[in-house]
Amino acid sequence: MTADLFESVGDTRPSRGVMADGAVLLRGFAKPFEGELLPALRVIVKQAPFRHLITPGGHRMSVAMTNCGSAGWVSDRTGYRYDAIDPESKQPWPAMPPVLRMLAARAADDAGFNGFAPEACLINRYVPGAKLSLHQDRDELDFAAPIVSVSLGLPAIFLFGGAKRADKTARYRLEHGDVVVWGGPSRLFFHGVAPLADGEHPVLGRQRINLTFRKVR
Ligand code: MD3
Ligand code: FE
């Protein structure tokens, strides 16, 4: 089994690993970008603050979300979709800063997906207790493009299943700076995030921020 390779084991953490067919874990890949990344995120969040979206079923999500890029993921009573306009401000989402675009493209490239050009970056904010139920990401038109995820702040337990909802889930601890490229078959695997454990991150405090870069059209 490979799962134990990815558990937090102090300084023996591998810098790279394959979590499933097409899913490549790049431990700490975002760390060198941190100094530019965090200020860029602060600017985005001022323009498009985090908000708790409502699911089509009428539930308020515990994860707060915002976006940058030429499209953003939104949910309301009518369904899920990508929209060029922030429904709160009625303005376009903030542009994707070059540092974010570059981080995503370099990670994808490292995992063998050359020329990754995401239109959307969904920004998720977890406070202790917030979770994301098991789901698939199917609102994009192009499943050949990978999704690149960047974890920042408090560590999370990521739940990773298979192509079917009932498939067994493995647990991976994703920490500050970890990047995962989800391509190939893994692109459509079920996944979620366990309720965030309380803690204090030296840079981000009592929260976890996750970025997902997506090609949506
Ligand atoms: C595997 N976000 O935004 S990131 C999401 O930590 C989402 O906020 C989680 O699931 C988070 O949709 C997980 C890791 C991730 C993101 C997208 C995937 C894993 C994925 C898409 C397909 C397969
Ligand atoms: Fe997802």
Describe the structure.
The protein is α+β, with helices and mostly antiparallel strands and 217 residues long. The protein has one domain: Sandwich (Jelly Rolls), CATH 2.60.120. The protein is 12% helix and 31% strand. The chain has a seven-stranded antiparallel sheet, covered by helices on one side. Strands 7-12-9-10 form a four-stranded antiparallel sheet, with no helix packed on it. Strands 4-5 form a two-stranded antiparallel sheet. A hairpin with a 2-residue loop joins strand 4 (72-76) and strand 5 (79-83). It is globular, with a radius of gyration of 16 Å. Bound molecules: N-(carboxycarbonyl)-S-(naphthalen-2-ylmethyl)-L-cysteine and fe (iii) ion (FE). N-(carboxycarbonyl)-S-(naphthalen-2-ylmethyl)-L-cysteine binds at residues 122, 124, 132, 137, 147, 149, 156, 180, 182, 186-187, 189, 191, 193, 210, 212.
Instruction: Measure the end-to-end span.
Output: 36 Å
Say which CATH homologous superfamily is assigned: Alpha-ketoglutarate-dependent dioxygenase AlkB-like
Record the strand order, biggest sheet.
1-2-11-8-13-6-3
- State the CATH class: Mainly Beta
Question: What secondary-structure arrangement, pairings included, does this model have?
Answer:
Elements: E1 16-20, E2 23-26, H1 34-47, E3 64-69, E4 72-76, E5 79-83, H2 98-110, E6 120-126, E7 132-135, E8 147-153, E9 156-160, E10 170-174, E11 179-182, E12 191-193, E13 208-214
Antiparallel strand pairs: 1-2, 2-11, 3-6, 4-5, 6-13, 7-12, 8-11, 8-13, 9-10, 9-12
N-(carboxycarbonyl)-S-(naphthalen-2-ylmethyl)-L-cysteine (MD3) is lined by residues 122, 124, 132, 137, 147, 149, 156, 180, 182, 186-187, 189, 191, 193, 210, 212.
